Amino acid sequence: MKRSPLGVALSACALALLSISPQRASAAVQPFPESFRITDVKTADATIHVRVGGKGPAVLMLHGFGDTGDMWQPLAVKLMRNHTVVVPDLRGMGLSSHPDGGYDKKAQAQELARVLDSLSIGPVALVTHDIGNMVGYAFAAQYRTRTTRWVVMDAPLPGIGEIWDAQFRNPKTWHFNFRGPDVERLVAGRERILLDRFYNELSANPAAIDEQTRDHYAQLYALPHAMHDAFEQFAAFTQDGVDNRAFVAQGKLTMPVLAIGADHSYGTVEADDLRMVADNVSSAVINNSGHWIMEEQPAQAVDAIASFIDKK
């Protein structure tokens, strides 16, 4: 089935945003500074929507499910003072295009390396959350000398130890196997309902994720094939596990890693997970937060991440 071109997706999003009331400007999801350049980078079979701003050593930020690159705006504003900040939407998510395949995290990491090449950006520090963690590990494992340090937030890595096995069996992650010919028909037009379930159940305080934020992401996940491709990210987990075990067999990561867990979610277990794939892991815990750290406790997260990124 032929995918809708990026232009159609952009037009649909623009129309949706125009329909929002003026109060939208005060919502939790804020636009990136005007100094940021917005570009669409063409790869072999996709177009990756990227925000680039600031000046200095580069930081690559990767979002997860339920968000897009928009989640990183508070951190981008902080780091742009002395860093080049690169914030893509992963393939099939946000305003990136919707190819039929390529959702294994190893391939996505290779794609992001090509995106960085096209932007003339070499070494990067990684900041990742959720599915972004999985792409981030695949990037760090394949481009070890290109990755200077890594901040990884509140999600385990597929195929790595008991922590992943327990998460895969957790009733709260039933969506990992939510696939089949009818699932998209069930969700179509109900994207907000589906996302609310994750925001409510995986947060410490659901009210911290305001209505404007929920509407913002629901509109993006309602774009043509967006939810289909989100499910494809989950469908790739089995292959991701195979790839991750092969990466570990090549040796643990040696760059500094900060594992951030929320006190109502992974907590210090996040660091336990990362120590299975990396040698130099420190731990931080965000207080009064569930999984949605950048929405629930952005100030704590920004301070912890910025301190680690700038640590000598």
Which key terms come to mind for this protein?
312 residues, alpha/beta, Rossmann fold, eight-stranded mixed β-sheet, 13 helices, 8 strands, 41% helix, 16% strand, disordered N terminus
Brief overview, please?
With 312 residues, the protein is α/β, with parallel strands linked by helices.
Could you give the topology of this structure?
Blueprint: H1 6-18, E1 37-42, E2 47-54, E3 58-62, H2 73-79, E4 84-88, H3 105-118, E5 124-129, H4 131-142, E6 147-153, H5 161-169, H6 183-187, H7 191-201, H8 211-221, H9 226-235, H10 237-249, E7 257-262, H11 269-274, E8 281-286, H12 293-296, H13 298-309
Parallel strand pairs: 3-4, 3-5, 5-6, 6-7, 7-8
Antiparallel strand pairs: 1-2, 2-4
Helix pairs in contact: 2-13, 3-4, 4-10, 7-8
**Which outline best applies?**
globular
With helices defined by DSSP (H or I, 4 residues minimum), what is the helix count?
A: 13
**What average pLDDT do the residues reach?**
89
N-to-C CA distance: 50 Å
> If strands are numbered along the chain, what order do they take across the biggest sheet?
1-2-4-3-5-6-7-8
Q: Outline the biggest β-sheet.
A: 8 strands, mixed
Per CATH, the class reads: Alpha Beta
- Number of DSSP strand runs: 8
Tell me the CATH topology.
Answer: Rossmann fold
Give the percentage of residues in beta strands.
15-25%
Give the oligomeric state. Answer: single chain
In CATH terms, the superfamily is: Alpha/Beta hydrolase fold, catalytic domain
Q: How many domains make up the 3D coordinates?
A: 1
Low-pLDDT runs of 5+ residues are 1-27
Q: Would you identify the CATH architecture? A: 3-Layer(aba) Sandwich
For the CA atoms, what is the radius of gyration?
Answer: 18 Å
Structural class category: alpha/beta
Helix and strand sequence = HEEEHEHEHEHHHHHHEHEHH
